[in-house]
Amino acid sequence: MESFFTFLEKRVSDSSSLLCIGLDPHISDLPSPNADGAAAFCLGLIERTARYAAAFKPNAAFFEQFGASGWMALQRVIEAVREQSQRQGSLIPVILDAKRGDISSTAEAYARSAFSTLGAHAITLSPYLGRDSVEPFLAAPEKGAFLLCKTSNPGAADLQDLTVAGTGEPLYLAVARLAQAWNSRDNVGLVVGATQPDALSRVRQAAPGMWFLAPGVGAQGGDLEIALRAGLRRDGRGLLLPVSRAISRSADPGKAAAELRDKIIEIQYHLT
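-> C-alpha cells emitted (272 positions)
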C-alpha cells in the first residue's frame, strides 16, 4: 500500500535531499504587502529551489492574514509546486504548516480544507485533543500528518517537558510513543525542533523508524550537523529539515538551497 511516506521517500531519493523549503512570506520581504505579493514571493522561491527540495512547507498564517485573497494565493502556491513536480517527473510533497487541533467533527472540515480544497499532501497537527482529533487527517494513507512533539520555540518546555505521572518521562516522549501507535497507515510523523538536540536524540531513540520534521536550522539558531547527528535514522534518512529565511533572504536562493542540500549530503556521508 502506498502511503505519504512512500511518496516522501521517493522524492528524497529523486532529489538527493532532506531539505524542506519553508514558504513564509513575511510582509517585510514582499514586493507588495498583500496576497499577490505573497504569491509572487513564493512562486519565485519555488522556481529557484524546487530541484533541491525534498518538500515545501507553506505556513498558513502568512496567507490567512490577507483573508480570502490569501487563501487563493496559497492555492496558487501549492499549484506551482504541483507544476514543478510534473516538470521534474517527481512528486514534491507539500506540508501545510497549520498546526490544527480540534474535536473530530471540526477536524474533518480542517482535513477537507487542507487536502481536498488546497491540495496539500500533509499537515502539522497538535495531538493534545487525542486520537479522535487526529484520525480524520489519517484516513487516506497518501495524506500525512506531523504531530507537534518537541517544538523549536523557547516556551516549548512549559508543557512539553512536564513529567507524565507513572512513567517518569516528559510529555513529549509520551507523544512520540502515541504517534507510533497511531501510525498504522505509515502517514504519521513528528515535529521535533532542531534547536532541541538532546530531545531530538531522545525522541529518535523512542521512535527509531519515524520521520521527523525538524525546524530551527538557520534563523532560529539550530546547528545542522548536531541536528543530523541527533535525528537521523540508521539508514541516514528520517529527518526533514525545514529552512525558510536563510534561503529566501539570501542574495541567490537557488544557490543557497543547493549549498545547504550539498552540506546535508556531506554530513550524512560522514555519519552513516
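DSSP finds twelve helices and eight strands in the chain.
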